[in-house]
User: What shape does this take?
Amino acid sequence: KNEVEQSPQNLTAQEGEFITINCSYSVGISALHWLQQHPGGGIVSLFMLSSGKKKHGRLIATINIQEKHSSLHITASHPRDSAVYICAADNTGNQFYFGTGTSLTVIP
Amino acid sequence: DGGITQSPKYLFRKEGQNVTLSCEQNLNHDAMYWYRQDPGQGLRLIYYSQIVNDFQKGDIAEGYSVSREKKESFPLTVTSAQKNPTAFYLCASSNDRSGELFFGEGSRLTVL
Assistant: This one.
C-alpha cells in the first residue's frame, strides 16, 4: 500500500469548471505539499500546508489532519491549468512520500 | 533568481557506460535529493544529503552514486550496474526552516 494515494488518476474538464483533486496519506506528517508538473517535466511547488486552508489565485488547498486527507481545488479552470498535480507528504526530517499524480486536461 | 539547475536536459547513453547528471542550487539549502520518475509511479528517492560531505541511500540506490563536496552541488552518477536506467531524474532541495521543496527541470536519460 502506498503511503500517499491520489484520486482521480486522470481528469478531463471543460474550461471554467470547478476541479477537485484528492489526496489521502497514511503517515504522520509535518506538512503536505501540492506540486505541479508541466509537460516539460519541471516541478513547481504550489502549496505547503500543515493545517486549514490556503489560497493562491484560483487555487485552493485544504487539509484535514484528523482524517489524513487533503484536497486541491481549481476554480474557473483554464487550459493552462493542464498539468500533472502531485501530492507529497513530508514525514518530518526531510523525508517525503509522493503520490502518483493526477493528470489534468482542461479543454477550451 | 535562486533556483536549481540540472544538466543535461536530455542524455543518451550506450549500455555499459557511466553517466553523471549535474545538479546545482543557489538557494543555500542544506538538504538535497535525487528522485527517479517512471510512468505511473510516484517519485522514488535515490539518494539524499542533509549536509556537505554526507549522504544517505534512498529506496532505490543500487546502481547509482553521488557526492556532496560543496553545498551547492549534488551530482548523480548512473553506473553501468543500474539495470534499467532509462528514466526521468529530478533533483530537489528543501528549505531547512520552512520545509518548502524546490525542484530542478529534470534530466531525461535514455539508454540505447
Remarks:
- Chain A touches chain B at residues 2, 4, 30-31, 33, 35, 40-45, 48, 86, 88, 90, 94, 96-101 (CB under 8 Å).
- Chain A has a mean pLDDT of 94.
- The CA atoms of residues 56 and 74 of chain A lie 10 Å apart.
